[in-house]
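During the reporting period, we have paired protein sequences with C-alpha cells. One record among many follows, to show the layout:
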Amino acid sequence: MPEARAVDHLLLFARYPVPGQAKTRLIPALGPDGAALLHRRLAEHSSAVARAAGAAEGAGVTVCFTGAPRRDFRSWLGCDLAYAAQPPGDLGARLQQACAAAFDVGARRVVAFGADIPDLSPALLHQALDGLGNHDVVIGPAADGGYYLIAMKRKLPGLFSGIDWGTAQVGAQTRAAIARLGLTSTELPTLGDVDRPHDTIALRADPRFADVWSARPLLSVIVPTLNEADSLSQTLKCAQRADGVEIIVADGGSRDATCRIAAHAGAVVLVAFGGRAAQQNEGAAVARGRHLLFLHADTLLPDGYAELIRRTLERPATVAGAFRFRTDGAGAGIRLVEWGANIRSALLQLPYGDQGLFMEKRVFDELGGFAALPIMEDYELVRRLRRRGPVATLSEAVITSARRWQRLGAARTTLRNLAMIAGFHAGVPPERLARFYRDIPDLDTSNAEKQDIA
C-alpha cells in the first residue's frame, strides 16, 4: 500500500493483459490478442493519469492488481508506483478492502477507479478529491449505469453491500446505499468505459490505441551522429529495409557530410549539442513511434529487425531489449570480445548502446530518458531499465564496426571499458571519466570516436 505520509491515496484497479483473460467481452470483435492489447493501452493511460495526478496532489498511487505477479506489474507500469494484490471476492469486497487498507495506513481521502476509462484525466481525479471537501462520497458515473470512480474520506463498508455488480443497476443501487447511510454525495461528469464491442467505435480514430487495429506500431530509429559520413549511409540503408519505421538522425554538429547524407536518405535531421545523451533525448522528443530504437551510426541491423522488436515488446513485463553483439572484425581477440559482450548482455541484462537498445517510448519517458552525462549514458540507462524489469537480448545480432578495437587493440579497448565501469561504480565524476577516456592514446582521435564508449 502507499506510504503513510501520503495524505491522499489513489487506487487504480487493473488486470494484467493476458489474451483470453482480459476484456473477454471484446474478444468476439477484437480477438483475444486485440482485446488484451486494448486493455493494456487503457491501463497504461490510466496509470499515466494516476502518476500525474499523484505528483500534482501529493498523493500516493497504488495499483490494485490481479492476473499476474507483482513483479510483472512493476515491470509493466513502473516501479515508482505501489502495488497491492486484489483480495478474493466480488468487486464490492475488493473495493471495500482496498479502501479500508488505505485508511488503515493514514489516508485522509481515497479515490478508487478503474483502468478502462479512455477519457480519465488528472483534472477529474483532482475534482474527485476536491468534491470530498463538502461531501462524504464522490461518484464518477459510467454511461452503462455503473461507475468508473468512487471517492470517500472515511471507511464506508455499507457502501458496497447489496450491489448487483456487473449490471446496469450498480449506480442506482449505490446512490440508494448513500441515502440509506445518511451520507452526502456529488458526481463527476458521466464517462464511457470500454466493456463491449460498441464501446470501441470512438477509439478507432484515437492515436493512443492505433496499434490495436493496425497491429504494427510505428518504430522510431534514432541515430546520434558526429562526423559519421564514412559509415552512416550503409547504416541508414540497412535500417530502411523495414516497413513501419521512421529514422531520426540527431547530429551533434558534424563538420563533414553527415547531415547531407542523412537528409538525402530521407531521415529526419535535427541538430542537438551537449553530447550523445542530449542528442538521443532530442531525437526521442520528436519521435512519433510507440517504440524507440537507439542505433549507433556504425551499426548494421539484422533482417526483420522491426518485427523482432515488436514481438519482443509485446510482453508487457519486458522493459527493453537489445540485439546480440557482433563486429565486422576478424581475429581471436575480436571473437573473445564478442563472446564476453554477449555473456554480459544475456546473463547480467546489461547490453551496451552498440547493440541497438530498444524500448517503448512510454517507458523511456517514464524513466526520464538518458541522464545528462558526458559519457556512460547508455550504461546508466540500462541499469535503470534493469531495476524496473527484464531487459531481453535477442539471438539475432547487429554488426558493429570493429574500428575501435582495431585502432587501440582488443585487449586495451576492453581494459579501458572495464576501467570506465569501475570508475563509474566508484563514484568518479563523469566529466573526469570522459577526460580519461579521451586522453588514452589512439591511432585515430576523430570526434566520432571520442563519443564511443563500449
